Every structure is written in structure tokens, then in C-alpha cells.
Amino acid sequence: MNMSRSRVPAALAVSALGAALALTGCSSSDTPDDGRLQVLASFYPLQFITQEIGGDLVDVSSLTPSGAEPHDLELSPAAARGVGEADLVVYLSDFQPAVDDAIAQREPAHVVDAADSADLEAHELQGEEGDEHEGEEHSADDGHDHGALDPHFWLDPERLAAVSADVVAELSAIDPDNADTYAQRGEELAASLTELDTTFTEGLAQCDSQLLVTSHEAFGYLAERYGLEQVGISGIDPEAEPSPARLKEVSSIIKDRGVTTIYFETLVSPKVTETLASDLGITSAVLDPIESLSDPDGDYRSVMLTNLEALQAGLGCA
Question: Are strands 37-41 and 58-62 parallel, antiparallel or unpaired?
Fold first, then answer.
């Protein structure tokens, strides 16, 4: 792991989650039978949609604790055991190896894999000369290889809505007596996500710039959805350290295109981004990839709307 970046270690936080799971359990044999389905989501956006759909009928826990980086997730034995005991596990394959391993070993009875409906795409590192990976320094054995596909689909509300339909179907199969409730709540969630999508479309329709410069390329689906062009200092992997050549290339793009704001994300040190912004005499600002929820009073919608405000300010949107 690159020690020059300050991150919240999910491995440490999950030990606490494991203890909680050991106490609360994930099956009716370990907990008071209150009639709720015990559901595990691998990280926050999947927890959000499952809770929205299930309401009081489900008890949803996230394998990635609040404020922790999901890419680094390691599961304690108790947390891995909970994967096998849950009524339903909602996850994204090939994103968190520890979760993939736990599912393969524990074989939970019911699983929703977001990759089945998210329509994942490859979003390669972009530069002036097209797809470019020479500006990243990382090891092939660093444990963060997502392959060619960008996992950050949830930053497009319509893709998240597509995954929510699978959650509705699986909850209904597990608990057919409440299928109508899941369907109704799923429709309400889909409508809310469509409304959010419309707000973004209108809010980013007239901007001085369409160039979105980010610390790493977590916003490809958002950029694609709303007509923006993403350029990352690093690629999809947040652990990748940009080389001097990549920093020089991005600096040239910023100068040539008149960029006024570079965005860094939560959970990762802003040092590289802030230093580059300072050197160029421009602004740096936060853009949250919503991989985890740091504010207990917030939710997916509120963070997305905060992101919209940050984009409008940095891109000069009317």
C-alpha cells in the first residue's frame, strides 16, 4: 500500500464490524426473531438502495463501515461467517476481493451481484494523446486491479436504479408475502433516482467548461451521463501514484483548457491535488465518490446534490 496517501483503513474498521456481527448475528438463530430479513451489503450505495426498498422489513448492514475505504476491505472471520448466514447479500463482483472470496466460500442462499445490471464499462485514463497509462506508477500485485471495467456505476443514478430492480426481485423471492411492498418501494426509489438524474441534467446543461479534472478517475459514469469530459491525475485505482510525466501532462491540459478547479475525493489524501492546484494558481474542491458515507446525517441523495453544487461552482454552470 502506498504510504504517501492517508486513507481510512477498512481492515481495522471491519474488525469492529465483525464483533458487531458476532453479537447481533445474521440469522434468526442468533438474533431475536423480529421478522426482519437480515441483509448484508458490501458497501454504502448498495446498502442505501436495499434499505430504501426493504424499509422496516429488512435489517441492512454494510460490510464496509462508514468512513472506510471499500477498496481496502478485509473481512474478519466473524464478518466472513456472517456472509454465509445472511438472508441476502448485495455486492459488486470484482470490486472487493475479500467479499468475492467470502461469497465463494460461504455460498449464501440469496445474492444480488450489481454487476449483472449496472452495465459496467471501461473508462481508461485520458490525456491529450488519448488513452494513457504510462503516467501511473503501481504494482500488478497491489491488490487493487479492477480489470478493464470501471466499478463506480452508482454515480449514474439511472444505473443505480437498474440494480435496485434486482434487489426488489430477490427480496420478493425470499419474502413473497411482502412482494407488493418491495415493488412499491422500489418504484418510489426509481422515481426518486430519476428525479435526481433530471436535476443533474438541468444543473449541468449550461456550463463554461465540460472538463472535469479529478484526483482519480472515479467519475466516468457521471461524466458520461451528463456530457462532461473526465481527466484524472490517476486512473480508476485510487492507490496509483501519478508519475511526474502524468502530472506534467495534466498541468498542460489544465492550462490549455482554462480549468479553474481540480477535484479531490473524500477518504484519500488531497496532498497531490492541492499541491498541483497551488502550483497552477487554481482552486481545489471536494467531489465525493460516495463509496462510503462519512456524514451520519447524510445519504446518497444529499451527497449527490452536494456534488452537483461543487460541479456547478467549479465548472461555471449557469
Answer: parallel
